[in-house]
Design brief:
- The complex is a heterodimer.
- Chain A is an all-alpha fold.
- Chain A has 13 helices and no strands.
- Chain A is elongated and about 75 Å long.
- The two termini of chain A are 45 Å apart.
- Chain B is an all-alpha fold.
- Chain B folds into two domains: 72 residues, no CATH class; 221 residues, Orthogonal Bundle (MetI-like fold).
- Classes of the chains: A mainly alpha, B mainly alpha.
Chain lengths: 292, 314
């Protein structure tokens, strides 16, 4: 039986082929390199950061970038490089968590709506209602209402990002539902759960992966907004947005406080956007062969 | 056509009800008592009781909900705990400021975004294409509030070319209005510009490969006319549909940009309310922005159906 099944299945290695295609995609590779550099800074913060990100030196207040403080210090004399490294850790972790939560919630909601016709209308109207709010304002309102903390920021950003993700999964599920192989699976008696996971979800994987890369990027941008406005994790926790908020009042005397974390956001988000573009080119079959 | 418009409008009623339900439910997310969250720990029990009454928390849940919907039907979004005025009134007072900012940003983003995207598509694969698309991607990757701060640093406090913040109404002095809104509008337009440029480019690359473009060229139309009328004209159709979504994003981002540039619009009202936990204003502001978004998208969809008869049949 198993020999027969193996013989019937074409000898394809989809993951290996995907990896080869991604390696050949300059956009993806450049993006991955940028993100990897930020992630390396973030992970090594405990060992490589030259100073304590929370404790400043009164004598070194607002020191310009130089030999001791590579990126300068803020108004408490705290080292900006160390704060940006620790900030990167928290900001990237929040982005990653939002991506995971949104991925799980969006997949569950979208798959159920797309596969079970009776639930499609009510679920999608609810998603439409959530999408009527500007996502950043919804996140600000939820984070402020729940009270600023890392967990609440993750919850708020995930709620803001989930409806669109659910819609992406639903669209793919709607297409998959009508496919012959789903009918075949149903005919041989496969359960709803099996069809959903093996056939319907497998089909929405490509658009989902692309979407989640952008969700990660947007989460980093929006987390910075929440922290900047003052509804993010409480001070003195370093996040990109919080460091920028610290520098705001000293932009003329000490622009480095504001510039360094902002550039760190740009590098992270640009890296993710480039990866998303590369993934879309590789995963979307319509774009795989040139249109002309 | 009228039938489509009515059906489309009717379809937004359940969404509208859900939107108002979500804003109503926000108060329910507050850990503990909203009245004591609004006041600080030193508040007297009488003060807490007064705020609870103002928020309607002394009434049972069904009565509160009935109250909420009854007031909404009359355009009443409740009363601010802090500003001593109605939420609707407070929003309408500040609306012209936000609208003029968002409108300018919208015009900037559309004009520059479409131009850049079209140019990139025409120069497909060349240096101009690559540099324009790099710029567009960069625009999508820059946090707006940070860009605003950098612009204030370089072009306002640094050089004095523009004021660092504040606002002058257009009716008072158009020149000073323009000076005050240039930087915020550019900040606000940046992300959307990148978004539109990317969309225009891919839509136009698609139309450039269509048979009607080849026909237009074959019958000897000048290339400029083929590009503008046939290629770009048709590429704009899908872009018009995302305009509605863009208005939502612009309004949301305007809230943050107003904060950076100290512009007294609806956004600053909402952020101020968020920071002081003035719940009626937070709820009213959210609901108002969602209503604007739904109304704009309703209009866009109906216009789209008017332009493209195929949509009506769906």
């Amino acid at each position: 039986m198993s020999a027969l099944a193996a013989a019937a299945r074409p000898p394809s290695r989809p993951w290996r082929e995907l990896a080869a295609r991604l390696r050949a995609n300059p956009s993806f590779m450049l993006g991955a390199a940028l993100l990897a550099a930020m992630a390396a800074l973030a992970i090594s913060a405990d060992w490589l950061a030259p100073f304590d990100p929370l404790r400043g030196s009164a004598r070194a207040r607002m020191t310009a970038p130089g030999a001791t403080y590579w990126l300068g210090t803020d108004h408490f004399g705290r080292d900006i490089l160390s704060r940006v490294m620790h900030g990167a850790r928290l900001s990237l972790l929040i982005g990653l968590a939002v991506m995971i939560v949104t991925g799980l919630a969006g997949t569950a909601i979208g798959a159920v709506a797309g596969y079970f016709r009776a639930l499609d209308g009510p679920i999608m109207r609810l998603m439409d209602a959530f999408m009527a709010f500007p996502p950043i304002i919804l996140a600000i309102a939820i984070s402020a209402t729940l009270g600023g903390s890392v967990t609440n920021v993750i919850i708020a950003l995930s709620i803001a990002a989930t409806p669109h993700t659910a819609r992406v999964v639903r669209a793919a599920a709607l297409v998959a539902r009508e496919m012959d192989y789903v009918e075949a699976a149903r005919a041989i008696g496969a359960s709803h759960a099996r069809i959903l996971v093996r056939h319907v979800l497998a089909n929405s994987l490509a658009p989902l992966i692309v979407r989640l890369t952008y969700v990660f990027a947007i989460a980093i941008l929006n987390e910075a907004v929440l922290s900047y406005i003052g509804v993010g994790p409480p001070p003195p926790t370093p996040t990109f947005g919080a460091i920028i908020a610290n520098g705001r009042d000293f932009i003329l005397e000490a622009p480095w406080i504001t510039l360094a974390p902002g550039l760190a956001i740009v590098v992270s988000v640009l890296g993710l956007n480039l990866m998303g573009d590369g993934l879309r080119d590789v995963l979307d079959p319509r774009l795989r062969t040139p249109l002309r | 056509m009228l039938g489509f418009a009515l059906r489309r409008a009717a379809a937004s009623i359940p969404v509208l009800l859900l939107v108002s339900l979500i804003t109503f439910g926000l108060l329910w997310l507050v850990p503990g008592d909203p009245a004591s969250v609004f006041l600080d720990a030193s508040a007297t029990p009488e003060a807490i009781e007064r705020i609870r009454r103002e928020l309607g928390l002394d009434k049972p849940f069904p009565a509160r909900m009935a109250d909420w919907y009854w007031r909404l039907l009359h355009g009443d979004l409740g009363r601010s705990l802090l500003l001593d005025r109605g939420v609707t009134e407070a929003i309408l007072e500040r609306l012209p400021v936000t609208l003029s900012l968002a409108a300018l940003a919208f015009a900037l983003a559309t004009a520059l975004g479409v131009a850049a995207g079209a140019l990139a598509a025409i120069r497909h694969g060349r240096a101009a294409d690559r540099s324009l698309m790099t710029l567009a991607l960069l625009g999508l990757s820059i946090p707006e509030f940070w860009l605003g701060l950098v612009l204030i640093w370089t072009l306002a406090v640094g050089s004095g070319l523009f004021p660092a913040g504040g606002y002058v109404p257009f009716t008072e002095s158009p020149w000073r209005w323009a000076r005050h809104v240039t930087l915020p509008a550019f900040t606000l337009a940046c992300v959307q510009m990148g978004f539109i440029a990317r969309m225009t480019r891919s839509a136009m690359l698609e139309t450039l490969g269509q048979d009607y473009v080849r026909t237009a060229r074959a019958k000897g139309l000048p290339e400029s006319r083929v590009l503008t009328r046939h290629a770009l004209g048709n590429a704009l159709v899908p872009i018009v549909t995302v305009m509605g979504i863009m208005v939502g994003a612009l309004l949301g981002n305007a809230v943050v940009t107003e904060q950076v540039f100290a512009i007294p619009g609806v956004g600053r009202l909402i952020i101020g309310a968020v920071l002081s936990r003035d719940f009626p204003v937070i709820q009213g502001g959210l609901l108002f922005l969602a209503l604007v978004y739904l109304a704009v998208n309703l209009v866009v969809d109906i216009l789209y159906a008017a332009v493209d008869p195929r949509v009506r049949l769906e």
